[in-house]
Amino acid sequence: MTEDDDLIDWLRLAATPGLGADRQRSLLAAFGLPRHIFAAGRSAITSVVGSAAADALLAEPRQDWIERARAWAAEDGSHILTLADEAYPRTLLDIADPPVLLYVKGDPALLQRPALAIVGARSATPQGGSNAEAFARHLAARGFTIVSGLAAGIDTAAHRGALAAGAAGAGTVAVVGTGIDRIYPARNAALAREIAACGAIVSEFPLGTPPLQHNFPRRNRVIAGLAQGVLVVEAALNSGSLITARLAAESGREVFAIPGSIHSPLSRGCHRLIRDGAKLVETAEDVVEELRGRLGTRLPAHAAKRVAAPQASLALDGDAARVMEAIGHDTVALDTLAQRCSLTVDALYAILLPLELDGQVASLPGGRIQRVGR
Fold this sequence. Notes:
Largest sheet: 9 strands, mixed
Shape: elongated
Strand content: 5-15%
Number of strands: 12
């Protein structure tokens, strides 16, 4: 029995239609490796998963699907990890339903390192994106691999922040809810290529799987399972990020949340998490200190390095400084801001434009303005 034969049996088990991950694990628990399952015979298999599943399992395997997966695994940087592989991430074995197979594009060693998941809203505010990127950049430089889901908004900012830490950082892992050969959203194709080159992309779904809505909650449990903690940056009350946080807590991980404006819908999910026991964080060092005891000596030596400070922002003259002070740290309607500053809207626009171009303020839907931390 060769290693390739073993992989074929794993792929055949995973490709059986209607079997499902729960029954796959039941069969593995009963018989051991997939080759032992297929050698057990229909009667023995039926006693574990029922006759319909046994018939599906013993039917002619989907050779086209199996060959496609084998060809993908033969490409540079492509790996298929099974539950029996030494390289399979140990942290995933702590969750209730670890995937039977993982497709990995990039460096699978990243899946064994201390990690923090950073998740949040797809429709993030500019300040939320800035926070996610800054936290990820700092924490990657402190030795944490940053895990997220490659979605728009907070996920994208977290991946970019980790990549910005460069050689001093611990890299980033993107867990996707599609087949690993499909990028969703398509606008993150370039980011995905960069992550595959400098980090890792992970999926449990067969090649070619489209972005089906019910797959993303399953993706979220892998995000939570790969990390020692989950940081939620922005989230509405119905956000999938709250699912990730709940799954993390159920698996004994730490849950962190950044508070926000009481007026922002994207703060309400974070505030609920904090009320339910998540740790309120204001700086990345809050996360480091909380996880230091859990990780002990596992935090790499290069974790003490710091990333370079950001470039200085545009110097503020009297009018600009007055406008920035009037904005405060909440969102504000343009008309309200004009009244606070005793300016006409046209005069206010002239002051806000260079501040927005410099990234110090952002225009939000509904004619509102937000200060962006630098």
